[in-house]
């Protein structure tokens, strides 16, 4: 984005009125979505409505000192991000201003107004290594070289999507800034590492494919029951304190995505500060390097201006698309999309638009789906495959899922992880409700699970689902008449379901051996519980009372598999299964 300074705002138009983040101006001669600089201070804004000679602008900064009559400058460019090496290991605000650069410029963590900064460092040089030679033909999107962006990620330098392409007439290795040409094409075009892209427009890609690989999260309930596909969409709605942030962060840390884009969208200020402080400290379990080496953070706290919150999800997804184009699997987390929708609502009401449900604009559903639609498993323009998986947290007021943001999100996403205040209160974590949650990717991911985890994974998962369902129904009876009134076989189901909940579904994000569970271990725990179930059913058939079955010494050890080191799991479970068989068979 080009630089504005607070002294030389060109007077293309004049401010007519100011209402919070919404400013109107006359005579601007701008197009929809053009970026403008507003007032003597040159605050950044975007044209969102044009009526005759009246231009409505949403301003990304505090407008309290702006007055009618002040100048407005039109850049003639849509809101864009700078794409290139240097985005990883960086924390941005909602319009891609690096927070550390802003802080330095103002010498304080409190963002002043009218300060602009390019999204990537224009002075830093990168060691460029060509991957094509002079004489090669290249097209838009093709990779022509690489730079080591971080210790973890190799950044692919691509011919911009709007280039004509042609024969490479000059290219060489060396150190370049992001604005220096690294290659020259016969078309006369010069390729530099930096590309600009308007955030509200999806970057071009080939066809979306049906995703068939899971985004392995290392969370048993997700990988086991409600898997998300690479390129899929998921929503985590939940009331305050139910674990949205912990779940999003576990996904950021442990999911097998190459790149993580984490959008902290207007959550309470101090919570975002936590993320900003914590993330740079986190190690990357995949590589041992810092997690930030494959992460880009976009931070918009609720004390930042509302319009910047509206734009932050677009900034995030555009950055995600750029890494997708390089052939990477990107996981994008937005926490929370409710704050984003509230920003939309606030701007809409300032515009005096006709409000829809609960005051949200009528276009809420369209905006949500435009955002989630940018997720997918794609063939990229350069013939690679890349994906963007989008996981949106939703914070419905009072945990009421019938409100418009949750409902509209549910119509779009294919995976739903419903957080539950009751489970959280009972300290059952992750507090994901297995009755209400679902994944529509299950069937298409089954072949992957059969090939990569266990041939019977889908069947054993279905067995677990059935037991949990039956438990749900039996609990209703138990509440009326008590457990003792149930027949023996039903009491056994309750016992087995208890182990499914405690030994399998519960997972502690704060215990090192348990915070990441490989799919093999997820499967093995399940298998052990099923083994107990099958042996117990035989004992029951042979007349052993359920009381005695419950009391075998080995059974509670099922709860210990999760906290057993991954490499010790096979032996531990083999021994446990043997003890279970022996002890249960001794009873008859
Ligand atoms: P939210 O973002 O929904 O307000 P948080 O993610 O901050 O909620 O979670 C609230 C608290 O719940 C955490 O501080 C933690 O104590 C507990 N918690 C949530 N998920 C887990 C988990 N997987 N393991 C252990 N504790 C958890």
Automatic annotation (TrEMBL):
Record CDD domains: ATP-synt_V_A-type_alpha_C (cd18111), V_A-ATPase_A (cd01134)
EC number assigned by the record: 7.1.2.2
Binding site for ATP: 238-245
Residue span, ATPsynthase alpha/beta subunit barrel-sandwich domain: 118-200
Keyword terms, alphabetized: ATP synthesis, ATP-binding, Cell membrane, Hydrogen ion transport, Ion transport, Membrane, Nucleotide-binding, Translocase, Transport
Domain ATP synthase A/B type C-terminal: 447-548
Keyword match Nucleotide-binding: yes
GO MF assignments: ATP binding; proton-transporting ATP synthase activity, rotational mechanism
Occurrences of domain ATPase F1/V1/A1 complex alpha/beta subunit nucleotide-binding (ranges): 218-439
A cellular component term, taken from the record's GO annotations: plasma membrane
ATPase F1/V1/A1 complex alpha/beta subunit N-terminal domain segment(s): 15-76
Family matches, as PROSITE patterns: ATPASE_ALPHA_BETA
SUPFAM superfamilies documented for this protein: C-terminal domain of alpha and beta subunits of F1 ATP synthase, N-terminal domain of alpha and beta subunits of F1 ATP synthase, P-loop containing nucleoside triphosphate hydrolases
Biological process terms in GO annotation: proton motive force-driven plasma membrane ATP synthesis
Tagged with keyword Translocase: yes
Uppermost EC category: translocase
Membrane topology note: Peripheral membrane protein
Entry's localization field: Cell membrane
Catalytic reactions of this protein: ATP + H2O + 4 H(+)(in) = ADP + phosphate + 5 H(+)(out)
InterPro entries named in the record: ATP-synt_VA_C, ATP-synth_a_Xtn, ATP_synth_asu-like_sf, ATP_synth_asu_arc, ATPase_a/bsu_AS, ATPase_F1/V1/A1_a/bsu_N, ATPase_F1/V1/A1_a/bsu_N_sf, ATPase_F1/V1/A1_a/bsu_nucl-bd
Role noted for this protein: Component of the A-type ATP synthase that produces ATP from ADP in the presence of a proton gradient across the membrane. The A chain is the catalytic subunit.
Family per similarity comment: Belongs to the ATPase alpha/beta chains family.
Subunit and partners: Has multiple subunits with at least A(3), B(3), C, D, E, F, H, I and proteolipid K(x).
Protein's name in the database: A-type ATP synthase subunit A
């Amino acid at each position: 984005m080009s630089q504005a300074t607070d002294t030389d705002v060109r007077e293309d138009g004049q401010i007519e009125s100011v209402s919070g983040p919404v400013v109107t101006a006359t005579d601007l001669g701008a197009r929809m979505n053009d970026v403008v600089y507003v007032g003597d201070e040159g605050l950044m804004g975007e044209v969102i409505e044009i009526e005759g000679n009246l231009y409505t602008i949403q301003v990304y900064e505090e407008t309290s000192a702006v007055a009618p009559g002040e100048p407005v400058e039109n850049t003639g460019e849509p809101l864009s991000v700078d794409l290139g090496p240097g985005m990883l290991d960086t924390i941005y605000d909602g319009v891609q201003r690096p927070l550390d650069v802003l802080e330095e410029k103002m010498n304080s963590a409190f963002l002043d107004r009218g300060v602009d900064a390019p999204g990537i460092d224009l002075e830093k040089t990168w060691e460029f290594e060509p991957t094509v030679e002079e004489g090669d033909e290249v097209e838009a999107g093709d990779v022509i070289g690489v730079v080591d962006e971080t210790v973890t990620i190799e950044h692919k330098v691509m011919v911009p999507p709007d280039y004509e392409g042609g024969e490479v007439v000059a290219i060489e290795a060396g150190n370049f800034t992001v604005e220096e040409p690294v290659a020259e094409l016969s078309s006369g075009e010069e390729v530099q590492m930096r590309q600009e892209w308007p955030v509200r427009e999806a970057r071009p890609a080939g066809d979306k494919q049906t995703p068939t690989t899971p985004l392995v999260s290392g969370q048993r309930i997700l990988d086991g029951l409600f898997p998300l596909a690479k390129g899929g969409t998921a929503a985590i709605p939940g009331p305050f304190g139910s674990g949205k942030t912990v779940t999003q962060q576990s996904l950021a840390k442990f999911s097998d995505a190459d790149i993580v884009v984490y959008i902290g969208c207007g959550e309470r200020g101090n919570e975002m500060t936590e993320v900003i402080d914590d993330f740079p400290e986190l190690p990357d379990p995949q590589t041992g390097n810092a997690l930030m080496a494959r992460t880009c953070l976009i931070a918009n706290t609720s004390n930042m201006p509302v319009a910047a919150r509206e734009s932050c999800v677009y900034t995030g997804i555009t950055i995600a698309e750029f890494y997708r184009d390089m052939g990477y699997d990107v996981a994008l987390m937005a926490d929370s999309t409710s704050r984003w929708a509230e920003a939309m609502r606030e701007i809409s009401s300032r515009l005096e638009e006709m409000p829809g449900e609960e005051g949200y604009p009528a276009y809420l559903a369209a905006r949500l789906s435009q955002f989630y639609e940018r997720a997918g498993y794609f063939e990229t323009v350069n013939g690679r495959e890349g994906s963007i998986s989008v996981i949106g947290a939703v914070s419905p007021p009072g945990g009421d899922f019938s409100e418009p943001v949750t409902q509209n999100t549910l119509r779009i996403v294919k995976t739903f992880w419903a957080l539950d205040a009751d489970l959280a209160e009972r300290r059952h974590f992750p507090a994901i409700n297995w009755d209400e949650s679902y994944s529509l990717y299950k069937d298409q991911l089954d072949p992957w699970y059969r090939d990569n985890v266990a041939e019977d994974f889908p069947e054993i998962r279905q067995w677990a689902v059935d037991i949990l369902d039956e438990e749900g129904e039996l609990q209703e009876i138990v509440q009326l008449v008590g457990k003792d009134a149930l027949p023996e076989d039903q009491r056994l189901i309750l016992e087995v379901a208890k182990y499914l909940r405690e030994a399998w579904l519960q997972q502690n994000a704060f215990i090192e051996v348990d915070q990441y569970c490989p799919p093999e271990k997820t499967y093995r725990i399940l298998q052990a519980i099923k083994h107990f179930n099958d042996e117990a059913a035989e004992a029951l058939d042979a007349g052993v009372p359920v009381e005695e079955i419950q009391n075998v010494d080995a059974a509670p050890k099922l709860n210990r598999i999760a906290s057993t080191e991954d490499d010790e799991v096979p032996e531990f479970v083999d021994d446990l299964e043997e003890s279970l068989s022996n002890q249960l068979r001794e009873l008859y």
